[in-house]
Every structure is written in structure tokens, then in C-alpha cells.
Amino acid sequence: MTGMDIDRDGNIIYSGGGFSRAVRKLNLQTRQISTIAGKPYKREWCPVYVTGDTSKAELFDPGFPLADAKGDIIYTDNRNHRITKISKGKVSTLAGNNVIQECGANIGGRAHEGHQDGKAATALFNFPKSMAYDSKGNLYILDKENAIVRKLSPEGIVTSFTPFDPAKARINR
Questions:
Q1: Which helix (H) or strand (E) holds 36?
Q2: What does the angle CA 154 – CA 158 – CA 161 come to, to the nearest 5 degrees?
Q3: Which of 3, 26, 84, 173 has the most crowded CB, counting CB atoms within 10 A?
Q4: DSSP secondary-structure letter at 99?
Q5: What does the DSSP 8-state code read for residue 58?
Q6: What is the pLDDT of residues 78-112, one digit of tens each?
């Protein structure tokens, strides 16, 4: 397990990074585990990132999940450097657009690190980790290897909430 949260129905939502590549739910009443999205253990090497219907979606390296009051699940993707959303049976990229390396460059799967503010669809992250919402609907993201906190506004704009210092960032070029 990489991370977990409790959904609005009181179930444990957890992600499995690495080879399991899925977001799952543990129903606390029945103690049954179900896959919310991803294809667990389908690809040991050379993962792919496929959005769309949860039954067909393939996840890269799901990290810390966050279940919101609407029933949506947002998670950080550790090696894809994106914020991904699972909502109404669909997987979509909420923020981040880092270029995914070809399998030969990294068979474990990885995207290029980066730092770029702006529209969510063009923002770049560097190992986003945990997240939290404020009362206004802003999503704060710990962008670990950039050594900053980022903010994703409800309007879809990513900004560096704390100062970005390129000398402290670990970006492989």
C-alpha cells in the first residue's frame, strides 16, 4: 500500500503503487476488497497510462489517495508526476502533463520531472505526494522533489504556493 483515506461511506480507499498499479476499496462492513480503477498486476514492467472507463483504465504508480465529499477519488501519481481523478466510473488527469519516457529508458515506468505553473493540463510536477483541500475547494499538493507546495484552484490553475528554488529541485534533464 502506498496510501489510504476513508471515503464518504466509511470504506477504506487505498492505492497500490509499484507492480499492483490500482486504487482499491476495502468495504468495512463486508471486509470485501474491490478494485476501483486499474489493472492490478497486469504489467510488471513498462506500465502504460490509460484514462477513461475505470474497467479499462491502466494506472502508472498510484500514490496517496484523497476521497472528497462528492465521492470522487483523487490520487498523486508518484512516477507519472500527475494528479489523477476517479469520478463517475472514469479515470482522468486532473493536473500534470509530464512526458512519459519510453520503456527502454526506464522499464519500471517513469515520466520526466518538471516544474511549470499554469493551466492544470500543462502544469508539470516532480513526485507529487500528499494533498489536502481547503474550505474554498483549492487542492494543495506537496510537490516533493521540487521542494514546494503547489495549489490547484477550482478553476484549474496550478501555482507554486511556496517559493520555487531551482537549486533545491531534483530535476533530471
A1: strand 33-38
A2: 105
A3: 84
A4: P
A5: B
A6: 889 999 999 999 999 999 998 888 887 777 778 88
d(CA 45, CA 102): 11
Q: How would you list the strands of the sheet with 3-6, edge to edge?
A: 3-6, 12-16, 22-26, 33-38
Contact 86, 22 (CB under 8 A): no
CA distance 155 to 132: 16
Q: CA angle, 138 as apex, 133 and 144 as ends, to 5°?
A: 70
**CA 164, 157, 145 angle in degrees (round to 5)?**
35
Q: Is 118 left (phi over 0), alpha (psi -120 to 50) or beta?
A: left
**pTM for the complete prediction?**
0.90
pLDDT tens column, 28-66: 999 999 999 998 877 778 788 889 999 999 998 899 999
**Would you state the cell numbers that stand for residue 60, as one nine-digit string?**
502508472
